[in-house]
């Protein structure tokens, strides 16, 4: 029997208006779903109900879509990467840390389990999980209850830096063929997984670490399977110049040239386009190339600003017609905070031209992502859409005063007022706590695994000292 749930007389609803093609506010209406599909959004639901939820103090909004996250890495790197990088290489690489802090399968799993609970706790219902394949990956994803585009990354080369002045490339003898085969097995397994919550992404890891042949194979696989095509690209100043030296093209021009761009393509970051004021480049058409090909970008402002880099004018991307989505490339893995940071940074870096807004960036976190995924049943609350939704406690002190709750959520309350999260109509978070993964247990395991790897690394305390020295106890 398929169950019907109804949030009765929700105080506020962020509902999709298909005629206006916009999110809109509704007051005092029902949100009902049967199984995994919404049946009623606003107004009165008169059908039979198995579970009724009092909505009088709730806001109901669509679940957020995180188009760029690395669950196996992000939480376990915490405390090591916030302030430490190579200042002679734009704080990038963190080579000494990465070379010493080596993750094994237990550490990857501990990081991922924690990350997935954290994302559920901030109202995320769909993620692009960019990881290198590891044992038990799909089991952990299933445990989380999230909707996942599984993106096993593969590449032809790894980065390294000997002098600290230059990023160097260690190319694999097979050009990345073995990694590509392994990734294809994970993609195939994800698509037939019994949870029905997984899809696959073809994800050559970075535009500068893949041979042109591997990129062509990736494009061909994406076309043949209809899967989205992802890569990190135009993501750093050194990478821009590396691509310019190799090809006499900007990274975006190179992608256009080889046929990488298109309606199913999403570029992680695209910060260093020829629009960026740090780039001295004789042409200015990268945004046009992205827009004309219908390509998307995943904008993740926090990870960049941490290293002193900023995408200067996200509004210009949106004005040019580029499909902008958002992601949580680093911690905190919190899309609501990422929306706020994106908006504030846009104003700080492009001033009166910024042309961003809470509405535009909320769209980026919902319907723009759904557009790239080719899914008109995600990122919105409308009859027939997936029951992927988030409720907020309107009586939480951080939600007052109540005039414009989306602004309150983005600019004040963030995840603190989240009450529950549902994916496919099933609860993954209740009373603010993830229901499928025990987040506290996952947190303790994360600390254990990080401490173990740090001890194995030996010199990690010298590479990244604590922010405060350990002190001495003092008596009266
Ligand atoms: Zn990334």
UniProtKB/TrEMBL annotation:
Keywords: Hydrolase. GO terms for molecular function: hydrolase activity, acting on carbon-nitrogen (but not peptide) bonds. InterPro entries: Amidohydro-rel, Metal-dep_hydrolase_composite, Metal_Hydrolase, MTA/SAH_deaminase. Coiled coil: none annotated. It holds the Pfam family Amidohydro_1. The keyword Hydrolase applies. The keyword Iron-sulfur does not apply. PANTHER family: AMIDOHYDROLASE-RELATED DOMAIN-CONTAINING PROTEIN (PTHR43794:SF11), AMINOHYDROLASE SSNA-RELATED (PTHR43794). Belongs to the metallo-dependent hydrolases superfamily. ATZ/TRZ family. This is Amidohydrolase family protein.
């Amino acid at each position: 029997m398929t169950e019907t749930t109804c949030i009765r007389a929700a105080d506020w609803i962020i509902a999709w208006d298909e005629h206006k093609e916009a999110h809109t506010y509704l007051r005092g209406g029902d949100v009902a779903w049967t199984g995994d599909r919404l049946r009623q959004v606003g107004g009165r639901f008169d059908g039979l109900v198995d579970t009724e939820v009092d909505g009088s103090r709730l806001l109901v909004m669509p679940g957020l879509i995180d188009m760029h996250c690395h669950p196996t890495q992000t939480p376990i790197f915490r405390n090591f990467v916030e302030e430490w990088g190579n200042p002679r290489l734009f704080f990038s690489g963190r080579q000494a840390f990465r070379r010493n802090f080596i993750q094994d399968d237990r550490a990857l799993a501990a990081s991922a389990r924690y990350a997935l609970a954290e994302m559920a706790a901030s109202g995320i219902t769909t993620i692009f999980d960019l990881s290198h394949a590891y044992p038990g990956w799909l089991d952990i994803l299933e445990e989380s209850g999230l909707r996942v585009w599984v993106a096993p990354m593969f590449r032809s080369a790894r980065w390294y830096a000997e002098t600290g002045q230059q990023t160097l490339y260690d190319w694999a003898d097979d050009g990345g063929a073995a990694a590509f085969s392994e990734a294809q097995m994970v993609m195939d397994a994800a698509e037939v997984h019994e949870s029905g919550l997984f899809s696959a992404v073809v994800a050559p890891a970075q535009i500068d670490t893949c041979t042109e042949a591997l990129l062509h194979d990736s494009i061909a696989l994406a076309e043949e399977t209809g899967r989205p095509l992802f890569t990190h690209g135009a993501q750093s100043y050194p990478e821009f110049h590396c691509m310019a030296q190799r090809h006499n093209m900007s990274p975006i021009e190179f992608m256009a040239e080889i046929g990488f761009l298109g309606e199913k393509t999403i570029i992680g970051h695209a910060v260093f386009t020829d629009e960026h004021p740090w780039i001295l480049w004789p042409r200015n058409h990268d945004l046009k190339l992205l827009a004309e090909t219908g390509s998307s970008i995943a904008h993740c402002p926090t990870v960049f600003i941490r290293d002193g880099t900023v995408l200067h004018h996200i509004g210009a991307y949106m004005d040019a017609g580029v499909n902008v989505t958002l992601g949580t490339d680093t911690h905190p893995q919190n899309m609501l905070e990422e929306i706020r940071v994106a908006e504030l940074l846009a104003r700080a870096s492009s001033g009166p031209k910024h042309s961003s807004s809470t509405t535009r960036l909320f769209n980026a976190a919902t319907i723009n992502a759904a557009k790239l995924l080719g899914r008109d049943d995600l990122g919105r609350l409308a009859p027939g859409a997936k029951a992927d939704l988030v409720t907020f406690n309107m009586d939480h002190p951080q939600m007052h005063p109540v005039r414009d709750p989306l602004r309150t959520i983005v600019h004040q309350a963030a995840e603190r007022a989240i009450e529950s999260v549902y994916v496919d109509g099933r609860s993954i978070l209740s009373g603010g706590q993830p229901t499928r993964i025990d987040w506290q247990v996952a947190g303790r395991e994360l600390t254990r695994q990080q401490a173990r790897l740090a001890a194995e690394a030996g010199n990690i305390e010298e590479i990244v000292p604590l922010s405060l020295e350990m002190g001495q106890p003092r008596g009266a």
